[in-house]
Every structure is written in C-alpha cells, then in structure tokens.
Specification:
- With 78 residues, the chain is an alpha+beta fold.
- It has one domain (2-76): 2-Layer Sandwich (Dna Ligase, domain 1), CATH 3.30.1490.
- It has helices spanning 13-23, 54-66; strands spanning 2-9, 26-32, 38-43, 69-76.
- A 4-stranded antiparallel β-sheet has the order 1-4-2-3, covered by helices on one side.
- Strand 2 and strand 3 form a beta hairpin.
- Helix 1 packs antiparallel against helix 2 (54-66).
- The radius of gyration is 12 Å and the shape is globular.
Length: 78
C-alpha cells in the first residue's frame, strides 16, 4: 500500500476527491489542514458509487468552505 499527499486549495477539494474516487485505486482519503491536523478521514470502497458518495462529498464541501488550503492524503492499493 502506498500513500500520496496533494496540496489543494479549498475550492478544488470536492472535484479533486471526485477524480480520485473515479480513478478507483484509492483505499482511504484524509483531509488535513495547514497545521497537519486531520479534519476528516473516510474509506473508499470499490463499490462506492452514486448515492453512497453524497455524504462524503458533502463533508468534503463543508471542509472546503472552512479552509483555504489543505492537504489530501490518499492511501492507494498497490
């Protein structure tokens, strides 16, 4: 399992997470603030589509409204 970190502006958080989920190899996604504190963590299941993603994207959107910059940490399957 590998981990990647991406610096993202608050405006791009939701679209970035959508893209990660569509790629299909993310296992877990975390959002951290500038200080490195984890704001939210959620697992991404292989079968997660449509309605199941709505709460995840809503949470990401709420966090994006509160931060100007954040780090998205993606745990990927090898």
């Amino acid at each position: 399992m590998s981990t990647e970190e991406f610096k993202v502006s608050g405006d791009d958080v939701v679209s970035f997470i959508k893209r990660l989920i569509q790629e299909g190899n993310a296992r877990k996604i975390s959002i951290k603030n500038d200080e490195g504190n984890t704001l939210v963590e959620f697992p991404v299941t292989i079968g997660a589509v449509g309605v199941l993603l709505v709460p995840v994207l809503a949470a990401a959107g709420a966090i994006a409204a509160l931060v100007t910059k954040c780090t998205i940490v993606v745990e990927k399957r090898d």
